[in-house]
Design brief:
alpha/beta; eight-stranded parallel beta sheet; 15 strands; binds N-(iminomethyl)-L-glutamic acid; binds fe (iii) ion
Length: 401
């Protein structure tokens, strides 16, 4: 534990992207400082520089000669759910496609049935260890979506569970409009716009509204309708798009100034161009490619085209049971073609931008003092190791967690 005015020393290598969203070539421009020190005041970085010449501080914490990077930011999770998807998983590995399971009333719909039955306290208890795992892996800020509520009451319970967990973790809540009911979908979308979004906005239960725009979920027109309502209530917008089919969700989101478009496994030239020419962050989720055996999102092409790319775990029971953000980072190098430097930028400042946050993700004075001490002296371990113990200390607002 450390309070205000703490000087962290023993940093063999301090590595950080520049603050703010980085796009294209700039994603690989990291600042590397040898034998560095960080002065923390309150929960912010006050000063960074060479250890020789560091200012005096009330206390000094020697990290022991290791690499330090910014705390990682997970811009996409569904960490609140009840039930499990083990039977789905077994069916899928025997060859039944994810979308077919969903179309038959299983998949996301089975998680909805289990989640709708759970109380807020029950959901909190289920989500806590998942968030603890993500935090221990190095995720100092985590987005969490609703979306497994069958009805609006269950959606609100999910978001209340996130609100309770905000006392223990840095969470950014998102209202996810996930799959439509099997009948009465026009009324449902109308209800989302006229009841659910206003209620969520009034109670401050979400920072953004996300829609699953896909053949088996919501159409582009329905997504637009929901986005318009979100905007009317001053909520940011995000979308799950191009996971299986590029039906136009990416283009719509870029046009409407969404914070991010997430998935992109089926994106082609047109969608890449939309993202490269807009401010919308392209969030790739390599855990989904691994777990569902889907093609990987074209992150290499997105970066080459000049887009701002982020990486997330998409932690959820159906498509990505991935409880480690460093593993997502490492997979984005193998599966999506990012370089280690780009992947670090994608998991820090760009992930922050995907959440509309500008106060974290880079180690510079004025930013939140969220950082990771690694086990080794070279930060590239973070992108190299697949699992294992790369992170030795997780500091949130300058306090060891
Ligand atoms: O991000 N694609 C839609 N939603 C989630 C999966 C949810 C689930 O399968 O439970 C996703 O992949
Ligand atoms: Fe998702």
């Amino acid at each position: 534990m450390s309070g205000p005015d703490t000087l962290f020393t023993g940093i063999s290598q301090l590595v950080t992207p520049h603050p703010g969203p980085q796009r294209g070539k700039a994603m690989s421009e990291l600042v590397v400082m040898r034998d560095a020190a960080i002065l923390v005041r309150g929960d912010l970085i006050e000063w960074i520089g060479p250890e020789r010449g560091a200012p005096q501080a009330a206390q000094v914490v020697d990290l022991g000669g290791v690499a330090v990077v910014p705390g990682l930011i997970d811009p996409h999770t569904h960490a609140v759910w009840a039930g499990d998807r083990l039977a789905d998983f077994e069916a899928r590995v025997k060859g039944v496609p994810y979308e077919e399971i969903l179309a038959l009333g299983g998949g996301i719909r089975s998680t909805m049935r289990a989640t709708a039955k759970a109380s807020v306290e029950g959901l909190v208890a289920l989500a806590r260890p998942r968030l603890q795992a993500l935090l221990a892996s190095g995720a100092t800020t985590i987005e969490v979506k609703s979306g497994y509520g069958l009805d609006f009451g269950a959606e609100l319970r999910m978001l209340r569970a996130v609100r309770e967990l905000q006392a223990e973790f840095n969470l950014v809540p998102t209202l996810l409009v996930h799959v439509p009911p099997t009948s009465g979908r026009a009324e449902y979308v109308d209800g989302v716009c006229r009841e659910l979004i206003p209620e969520v906005a009034a109670a401050g239960l979400a920072a953004a509204v996300d829609v699953f725009c896909e053949r088996e979920a919501f159409s582009v027109d329905e997504t637009r309708q929901i986005f318009v309502a979100a905007r009317q209530h001053d909520l940011n917008i995000k979308v799950h798009a191009d996971q299986f089919h590029a039906i136009g969700g990416t283009e719509l989101a870029c046009e409407m100034g969404a914070l991010s478009v997430d998935h992109l496994e089926a994106s082609r030239v047109r969608q890449i161009r939309s993202l490269a020419t807009s401010k919308t962050v392209a969030t790739v989720l390599p855990g989904v490619s691994l777990h569902l055996g889907l093609p990987a999102a074209p992150a290499r092409k997105l970066v080459n085209g000049g887009a701002c790319v982020a990486v997330g775990t998409d932690l959820n029971p159906g498509s990505s049971p991935l409880f480690s953000l460093p593993l997502a980072l490492a997979l984005s190098v193998r599966l999506n073609g990012l370089t280690p430097a780009e992947a670090l930028t994608a998991c820090t400042v760009n992930a922050a931008a995907a959440l509309g946050l500008g106060d974290r993700g880079a180690l510079v004075p004025g930013q939140r003092a969220d950082f990771l001490a690694l086990h080794g002296e070279d930060w590239r371990d973070l992108a190299y190791a697949l699992g294992g113990n790369v992170v030795s200390g997780v500091f949130v607002g300058g306090v060891k967690r």
